[in-house]
Write a structure and sequence with these properties.
Number of strands: 8
Order of helices and strands: HEEEEEEEEHHH
Distance between the termini: 31 Å
Strand content: 25-35%
Largest sheet: 4 strands, antiparallel
Number of helices: 4
CATH architecture: Sandwich
Helix content: 25-40%
Shape: globular
Length: 155
């Protein structure tokens, strides 16, 4: 993959030392159309950064027949349950077209953020901005959840 993590808005402008560590943590992924990346309720392990393709993220409330859906496009992230320390993904993700990018282990990312508070603050603010656009006045709530998840360690 020619693109680096620094091309993603989430990581643009981070210190080069932090980016180097992130790039060592990142593992490439590639999925075909229709392939499931993860299902709602599966262990939340990775944050995904989509370089190419399109992914449908769906949430099925247990008392509702119609899943709530959002779409992730190139340059965006999904699977942030892994970053906030959730044990399982709160939604599922399936590829709509050939998709590739990077995945970062949520535990490793949280550990990096503990060791690098300045980089962590930038990453938390950006993640909060990414995941909260549909929630009115939610930026601070989401940042708080992410910060709390970053400070906890999962077993």
């Amino acid at each position: 993959m020619a693109e680096t993590l620094s091309s993603f808005p989430l990581f643009k402008g981070l210190e080069s030392a932090t980016l180097e560590i992130l790039e060592r943590l990142a593992k490439p992924f590639r999925y075909a159309p229709g392939e499931v990346v993860f299902q709602q309720g599966e262990p939340a392990e990775y944050l995904y950064l989509l370089s190419h393709g399109r992914v449908k993220v769906h949430y099925k409330p247990y008392d509702d027949l119609n899943p709530i859906v959002t779409y992730v496009n190139a340059g965006e992230v999904f699977g942030w349950s892994a970053v906030i320390g959730n044990k399982v993904y709160s939604s599922g993700a399936v590829c709509l077209e050939p998709s590739e990018g990077w995945r970062i282990d949520g535990n490793a990312l949280r550990l990096l953020c503990k060791e690098n508070p300045q980089g962590a603050a930038q990453i938390l603010d950006r993640l909060a901005t990414i995941v909260s656009p549909r929630w009115q006045d939610a930026h601070e709530q989401v940042r708080s959840m992410l910060s709390e998840g970053m400070s906890e360690s999962r077993r």
